[in-house]
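FORM 7B: Structural annotation worksheet

SECTION A. Query
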Amino acid sequence: MKKRDHYLKIVEWSEEDQRYIGSIPGWIGKCCHGDNEENVYRQLCQILDEWIEIYENDDMPLPASISGKKYSGKFQLRVG
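SECTION B. Predicted structure
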């Protein structure tokens, strides 16, 4: 698991800008945009990786993830 996987990444449509906007709540605000949702997500992941590297190079603690939750990765399917 990569360190960036601990952070919530949001790509949403902006009516005002008529583009997709990417952000990482609680750490990096709106920081990238584009016409393609997948490309904006990739940009967002790259920006996050760069910020993690900057923090680590400066010996700064990484911000806590916004959710603060840890998940086991196990899912249960419940059918009616």
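SECTION C. Observations
The beta strands are 10-14, 19-24, 28-34. The first helix runs from residue 37 to 57.

SECTION D. Sign-off
Analyst initials: ____
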